[in-house]
Amino acid sequence: MVGIHYFTMAIAALIVQVSAQNCATINPANPATFASGYSGKVLMNGLRQPRGLIFDNEGNILTTEQGGYGVRYIKLTDGGGTDVCVASNKQLIADSQINHGIALTPDGKTLFVSSLTTVWSWTYDGATGTVSNKKTVIQNMRNGGFHLSRTLLVPKANPDVLLVQRGSQDNIDTAAAQESTARSMIKIFKISEIQNAPVDYDKGQTLAWGLRNTVGFGEHPDGGIWSVDNGVDDMQRDGRDIHHTNPCEEMNYHGRINDAASPERGAHHGYPECHAVWDTSVIPNAAQLNLQVGTPFAHGVNSGDATCRTRQAPKLCFPAHTAPLDIKFHSNGTAAYIPFHGSWNKSPPDGYRISRVEFNAGTGQPIEPSTSTTAATNIMYNANNAQCPNRCFRPTNVAFGPKGQLFMTSDTTNEIWVIAGGFE
């Protein structure tokens, strides 16, 4: 029996070794630097601007590709850590309109994908990598050229709910001050209802509004819904250009999905009139006005500050123009991971990294106060942002795999990365 035991162990070790040796080495388009305890590699390249990223219940990756492709199905062999290989991949859905959002019901049977105007559903089979029974479930979400993505989420705490984000129609979309425009917000839809007939986006229940462009949102294990918002460009205050370091990029809380009485449910977060401070040093009379990091304040002139103080303030702030595009939580609730896509109107460039934010698992809230400037710790980043965006990876979406690693899409380098350490 002992001989058989050791023989079995040797065979298993050989299988693992061969699997690792068969895993192709893919050189990254641009190298990454990792914090102590973390490592990573390119899992797959040659994609077409990969954006949304989820895992199905069989451990396969589904990713949307903004470059006119649709949805790709990627089957893996996963030995843990960075010993992950692409076993096969194929086009699951061919549709050039698909540009970002993707979500799967917790039972793994219904897939949702979005375009600029529409959310569709399919019956999904993860074992065979097939879809059927396509339906239009949400419609009439077109914007006039700005903010084209429609992020989707089906919370595990309520699998009959689909959350759908829609951004603003311009940098400063003045009409979005009216909730009836159904822009700059997150809406709630009951899946059991939208499967019967298409619903216009404005008919959904408002989870939150006054959000300029909340591309990323996720669910804490306690059912709390969190989002990251991209602040305005070219900001001025009392005739001074303060856009280089203001406003902050926001991390917002929207209450637990099953708590309709939550004070955060349906809250206004300030946009388009109000934004949150990052750098007080460039804001005229900041000390006299009692402005600090995270304080909602008015664009243009300070006469609107009193109204802004009544708006829902962010729970945390990040540097201006770093463009957070997703937020995903560790399964034990102790940390959130945020990919910062990176700036386009800031010198030197900023962002282009994945950061970790510590959470209190018991309260479901960040450990750092809302005034913190150090809440985000970088775990993966470009060594020299001066070369960005042209010679950098640009993180877009992240997702935890079944063995605890973090996976990331980089849309400008057309890659998917796997990152290990600190999660498993």
UniProtKB/TrEMBL annotation:
<feature type="domain" description="Pyrroloquinoline quinone-dependent pyranose dehydrogenase beta-propeller">
    <location>
        <begin position="33"/>
        <end position="420"/>
    </location>
</feature>
<dbReference type="InterPro" id="IPR011042">
    <property type="entry name" value="6-blade_b-propeller_TolB-like"/>
</dbReference>
<feature type="signal peptide">
    <location>
        <begin position="1"/>
        <end position="20"/>
    </location>
</feature>
<dbReference type="InterPro" id="IPR011041">
    <property type="entry name" value="Quinoprot_gluc/sorb_DH_b-prop"/>
</dbReference>
<protein>
    <submittedName>
        <fullName>Soluble quino protein glucose dehydrogenase</fullName>
    </submittedName>
</protein>
<dbReference type="InterPro" id="IPR054539">
    <property type="entry name" value="Beta-prop_PDH"/>
</dbReference>
<dbReference type="Pfam" id="PF22807">
    <property type="entry name" value="TrAA12"/>
</dbReference>
<keyword id="KW-0732">Signal</keyword>
